[in-house]
Amino acid sequence: MKNNFLKLISRQFCLNLFRIKMRNLLFSLLVLLASAPAFAQKFNSLETNLHNLYRVSDAKSRSITPENRTGDKGKGAMTPAKEGTAAHAARDLGDGWKTNPYINIQPGQTEVLAEIEGPGAIKHIWMTPTGQRRFSIIRIYWDDEKEPSVEAPVGDFFANGWGRFAQVSSAPVTVNPGSAYNCYWVMPFRRKCKITMTNIDTRAMRLYYQVDYELTEVPEDAAYFHAQFRRVNPLPYKEVYTILDGIKGKGHYVGTYMCWGVNNNGWWGEGEVKFYLDGDKKYPTICGTGTEDYFCGSYNFEVKDDDKPHGYREFTTPYAGMPQVIRPDGLYNANMRFGLYRWHIIDPVRFEKDLKVTVQALGWRSGGRYLPLQDDISSVAFWYQLEPHKKFPKLPSKDYLEVR
């Protein structure tokens, strides 16, 4: 009897010990799974940055240039020397020696720069457009859409809208000497991507370009990149300038580039930038305190050095800048012109249903009163949203686009 009792206690003790061990093992497993979800998934490379650059991925790196118009593996530098745009320069070296580094786009012609089957993502675009930048229109189409998700003069898209070089050293856009335009916006797509350039000038356009992309899986919550150009010259008296409106769907606003041509003497940047979100009508949800404040400057962008005349100071930083100030020369350059950008990378403006963005044009008049300005204002708005998107307003005519 005593032995049976001891056996029963021993058996119960072992059973309890087993249960405790199993419970601890299960708990440890759950902690391990919860603490390391990223390592349980393959890295698709879309979010590559300095802090995860060590991670390997199954993504396939590809690049489209005039030397490889399809981006296909092992298809670069195949243009015969006698047929390339640089045939004359390569005539002594033969095939494979920089035979086709650029394309020529004739007046009125639309050239397909890249056409890619997905899924994947554009990671970088570099190009060196020539001629009047407002007369070269870049468009990007996602999947099978008929209307572009990106449509802008190429200079404005790359934060150089006045037709003159201005160095830009920002996170998503850089413009480097002598005319190198770069953008690093990540642009995911699922089925297809098409990039075109239209030359509406009367002269041919020579274009060197490179589109770097990756073929990889795209997550379900990835939105599509959009960019839209607008111009009003002059802005009607007491009207606000609309940077973007008519946006329906879910997404987030990520940047503004503006060209601001002043038609009055005095300070021009008292106007507020306003974001109308998800049903806002008369009053916005987000309202700034001044134009220079929105572009992360202050007090008229004016630097007051004791040993120098007071004046505007150009600046270019990762997320905001005023890289261009065109000053009157007293002859043909009559008015001040400014190029400004603000990228909402750390602080995207998220919307669920709809979005509208405006800016007031305000200066000063006598008696310390605001003066509604009638300036030359143009802009490119940058945002991501889930498709479909509403058709863009028609791009202005060539004469209306022209910068003089």
TrEMBL record:
Protein's UniProt name? DUF2961 domain-containing protein
A Pfam family of this chain: DUF2961
Q: Give the span(s) annotated as Disordered.
A: 61-85
Q: Where is the signal peptide?
A: 1-40
- What is the native source organism of this protein? Fulvitalea axinellae
Q: Which residues cross the membrane?
A: none
The UniProt keyword set, sorted, is: Plasmid, Signal
**Origin superkingdom:** Bacteria
